[in-house]
Amino acid sequence: MRVLIVEDETAAVRNLRSMLRSIEPFAEITGVTDSVIGTVEWLNTNNAPDIIFMDIHLADGDAFLIFDKVRVMAPVVFTTAYDRYAFEAFRVNSIDFLLKPVQPAEIKRSLDKFKRLTRIELDAYLDRTDKSMQHVTSLKNFLIPVRDKILPLALNEIAFCYTTEEKVSVYTFDNRKYPLEKSLDVLCGMLPQVDFFRINRQFIISRNAVADMTVWYGSRLSVNLSVETPEKIIVSKSRVPLLKKWLTG
């Protein structure tokens, strides 16, 4: 059994390795990645593993972004400290969803579930995953409830999405604001990554909304949009290279 571990916490990787070796002594850990970009590169340059244990919060974004960038040819077991991601996990047809701290009995359950998959079931799983992600990437509009009506909002009307106190709102280029019943993490998996970027914990921005950037202290950047924002948009030092790559790509 060939296993890929996608996890950005060293201690969590060490614990998972230990549990896998204890439960499945002949399992081979073929790779360990800690980011969306690193995982996409690994999957593009290596033979597919038999199973993937994947944390959701990674160094450069949420793991759901991986499925937008590469075809994942293996069953996935998600691990996370937050149960609110369960819906998204099963949207991409994971075979299991484990809450941290993960226990050996849960790892064994996931491995037993994997072993019970027949070839036909595995092929069907991969086919469902493909169709699920095709649906996401073909998204063109959000349906926004406004009082007693439902408003179709085209993605190209969105300037940015913003969250505060766990409430998410979408802002348009003509200064309209609508509430959304989705977290920014979920939106990251739905919005096309070529057009939208999760710039920090509060904002997802549209490429077309970026006006300019200002150098900020501590090697950070302040991003200025063509529309007014509820607060200043600051990009951390670690995400500046990702932002520049997105803007120039």
Q: Can you describe what's shown?
A:
The protein is an alpha/beta fold and 249 residues long. It folds into two domains: 2-137, 3-Layer(aba) Sandwich (Rossmann fold), CATH 3.40.50.2300; 141-248, LytTr DNA-binding domain (OB fold (Dihydrolipoamide Acetyltransferase, E2P)). It has helices at residues 10-23, 36-45, 64-69, 86-91, 104-115, 119-137, 184-190, 240-248, and strands spanning 2-6, 28-33, 51-55, 57-58, 61-62, 76-80, 96-99, 141-146, 149-154, 158-164, 167-172, 177-180, 196-198, 203-206, 210-216, 220-225, 233-235. Strands 2-1-3-6-7 form a five-stranded parallel sheet. It is globular, with a radius of gyration of 19 Å. The mean pLDDT is 86.
Which terms summarize this structure?
alpha/beta, Rossmann fold, OB fold (Dihydrolipoamide Acetyltransferase, E2P), 2 domains
Can you lay out the helices and strands and say which pair or pack?
Layout: E1 2-6, H1 10-23, E2 28-33, H2 36-45, E3 51-55, E4 57-58, E5 61-62, H3 64-69, E6 76-80, H4 86-91, E7 96-99, H5 104-115, H6 119-137, E8 141-146, E9 149-154, E10 158-164, E11 167-172, E12 177-180, H7 184-190, E13 196-198, E14 203-206, E15 210-216, E16 220-225, E17 233-235, H8 240-248
Parallel strand pairs: 1-2, 1-3, 3-6, 6-7
Antiparallel strand pairs: 4-5, 8-9, 10-11, 10-14, 11-12, 13-14, 15-16, 16-17
